[in-house]
Design a protein that fits this description.
single chain; mainly alpha
Amino acid sequence: MARRPIALVTAVVLLLEAPAIVGLNAIMARFVEAQSMSLDGLDPDRMVTGTWALGIGSGLALALCALVALLAGVRDRAPGRLGRGLLIGCAVVHGLLGAVAVGLIGWAAFAVLMTVVGLIVLTLVAYGKEPAAPEEAAVATA
C-alpha cells in the first residue's frame, strides 16, 4: 500500500498550512489594530494580542501534527497514541472549519479543507491495525 507517500504528502500539506494560518491571523490582528476595533468594550490591544496568540498557537499545533505525519511516513510505522490523538483533533478542527468556510468564504475553501481532512484520515486509516496473518490466526484458534 502507498501509506508512506500519503503520510509524507499529509506532512507537507500541514507544514505549508502552518505559516498560512499564522499569516492570516497576522492580517486580522493588523485590521483590529489599525481600526482600533472593540467588541463590547474589550480592549483592542488585548484583542490584537489574542489574535496573535491564536495564530501562533494554531501554527505550532499544525507544525506538530505535520511532524507526527512526517515521522509516521519516514519510519513507516503508525503514530503512537498521542500522535493519533493529535491527528484526529486536527481532522476534526479542519472539518468544523470547512463547515464554517462554506458560508463565509465559499466552496473552494471548503474543498481545500476537506482535502486536508481526507489526507489526515487516509494517513490514520493507512496506519491502522493490520489484520493478523493467517498462520497466526490458525495457531490462535487451535
